[in-house]
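Reproducibility note. Readers wishing to regenerate the assembly model reported in the main text can use the exact inputs given here. Chain order matters: entities are listed in the order in which they were concatenated for prediction.
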Amino acid sequence: MKISEFKDILSGKAVSGAHLLDHEVKVAFASDLMSDVLTITEDNVLLITGLANIQAIRTAEMSNIHCVVLVRNKNASCEMIRLAEESDIVIIETPYSLFRTSGLLFNAGLSPIY
Amino acid sequence: MMEFRFEINGGDFSNAGMISSLVKKTLKQLNIDGMIIRRTVVALYEAEVNVVAHAYSGVVNVNIFPDKIKIKLTDKGTGIADIDLAMQQGYSTASPAVREMGFGAGMGLPNIKNNTDELNLESTVGVGTTLEFTNFFEPK
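Running the prediction on these inputs yields the following C-alpha cells for the assembly.
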C-alpha cells in the first residue's frame, strides 16, 4: 500500500516528504527505543513511534526508513522536518495512540518484522 | 585513501548522528554495498551517541581504504569500569536524558559489535574510552 493510504487511515498529516507519498511500504515496526530500531536489517520499513525528537529521524536515516509515524499528536520540530526533507523521509503526525496506530496499519495489511 | 576528522561535544544530542550522516553520503558516492553502508553507519551512530551520552568530548577519525573503512572514536570522559559487562545486552549506566533521546537501554555496544567486522574497545576509568572498528567492503 502507498504511504498516502496509511496517512488517511490514521487521520494523519504529512509534514515532510510530500513527494514520497506514492511510495509503497510493506512492513512496519513500532518502538520508542531507537537502539531497537537500529537492529532492523530490512529496508523500507515504516516506523511508528512516540519519540518526537531529532534522533528518531537520524535513526530512520541510518536504517533506510522512509516513513516515520509520530503518534498521540506529537509534533515534528523544524529541525526534524529539515532533516527529514534532506533524507527523503515522510513524517506523518497522527492523533492515534501507538497501539491503535499499530492495529489499524496491521489490519490494513502492513506486516510485522518479527 | 580518504581521511576525515571530526569532533564531538559531550551532551550535544541534537548533533549526534551528523558524522554518521556524512559518512553515509561519502560511502554512497563511493558505490559501497548498501548493507555494508548500513552496518557501518549504525555502528558509528551508536558510537556517536555513546560519546555524547557518556563523555565530555571526543574525536572521530574516519579512514576509508580501497577495501575497508576504519573508524576510531577517542573520548575524554568517565570511561568504562567493566567492558565485559558493558558489552552485555541490557546493561546501561545512561542518564534519564539519554533515555529520553531513545537510547540508554544497554543495546549500543552490542549493536556496534553486531555491525562491525573488527572491534577494539579500551577504556580507563576517569580518563576516557577508545573504540575502534573496521568494516570490509567485500566479505573476508
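We highlight two features of this model. Chain B is about 35% helix and 30% strand. Residues 22 and 41 of chain B are 9 Å apart (CA to CA).
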